[in-house]
Amino acid sequence: MRFVCALVQERGVAVDTAAGYFSATQGWHSRVHGVKLAGGLKLERLPQMLKGLRRIVPQLGPKIRRGLAPQALRRAMDMLLDPANPEHANMRAALATAFLGLLRGEEFAIDAAKVWHSADRLNRADIVELTLERVVIMMHPCKNMKVLSGKTVPLVIGAGGMFIDAVAEITNMLKVDPAAGFSRRQVPLFRVPATNGSITKEAVHRIVKELMIVVGENPTHFGTHSLRIGGATALFAAGADPTVIRTMGRWSSDIYRLYVRACFERCCDWTKAAGSTAVTDVVVEFDEVEAY
In the chain, where does the domain assigned CATH 1.10.443.10 lie? Predict the structure, then answer.
């Protein structure tokens, strides 16, 4: 209890965050030592203390995170990112793929402090099909199914989106940045041509804010996750029901693979629709993606 209080009162950690830290420590202790903290005693007073802290410590509301609208993203990319520039072409392809594929930042970019490995991250050899109609990229299962190994999940994106077309952007990227001299497996799917390093989540976060500035939006409302939120919102606006959106977002990779196997063409249709649907703030954002 003193530890949790110190986190809140001395370190300025939010009450719910401090509770999460304690819960994580409790789980770690149980896994490593076979018994929970305090010898497994039921800590009945801790929840009551947290309840009291929530009353006396001001709590900030959830951070605003809006989804990117397809038409705004396209206009901003055309203003700021030159498709003939190899570095810009990689970023355009990354943004379009993340938007239509409902990708988490970790799935298409890397933390600046981490080292890129082809087995763990997307590389250009993972593009198993690229036609005028669609692109298919093999990727790892979703984050809650790490027990499954290998790139076993096909990410299917249809071509022809009026505003966002990942197939066209990837095709252009491979044309202006062929990565000559490297094997496809050695090349990050979305790379910095000067170093052959993967684009980073920090770079994506920064460019998303810059893109929103040029179209007159408040950059503090947007980040890397805005791509996933925006893609889900566009699907909703295009008529997809929540079950389809959850499936397309790979909340459960085994269900997604079954869906793709049975509805390959439908998957292409939905992504094309998402890339062609104008979205405004009147359309309710599919906020559930914020938690995943």
Answer: 70-291
206-to-88, 199, 200, 280, 282 alpha-carbon distances in Å: 14, 12, 10, 23, 26
DSSP helix/strand/coil, 6: helix
Q: State the Cα–Cα distance between residues 71 and 62, nearest whole angstrom.
A: 26
Distances (CA, A) of 180 to 30, 90, 133: 51, 15, 26
Q: Cα–Cα distance between 208 and 223 in angstroms, integer?
A: 6
Question: What's the start-to-end Cα distance of the chain, in Å?
Answer: 29
Q: How far is residue 74 from each of residues 96, 172, 230, 278, measured CA to CA in Å? A: 9, 15, 12, 11
Type of residue found at 274: A
Residue 193: which of 95, 106, 89 has the closest Cα? 89
* Backbone phi, psi, residue 12, to 5°: 75, 20
Cα–Cα dist 53/173, whole Å: 52
pTM across the whole model? 0.78
Residue 261's CB is within 10 A of a number of other CB atoms, namely 10
- Band of pLDDT at residue 84, cut at 50, 70 and 90: very high
Q: Residue 135 phi/psi, 5° resolution?
A: -125, 140
What confidence category does residue 258 fall into, taking pLDDT thresholds of 50, 70 and 90? low
3-class state of residue 129 by DSSP: strand
Rounded Cα–Cα distance for residues 198 and 200 (Å): 6
CATH superfamily assigned to domain 70-291:
Intergrase catalytic core (1.10.443.10)
| Cβ-contact 257, 152 below 8 angstroms | yes
* Secondary structure of residue 128 in the 3-state scheme: strand
Q: How far apart are CA 233 and CA 212, in angstroms?
A: 17
- DSSP β-ladder status, 191-192 and 153-158: unpaired
CA pair distance 219, 210, nearest whole angstrom: 7
Residue 34 DSSP one-character state: S
Max Cα distance, the chain (Å): 64
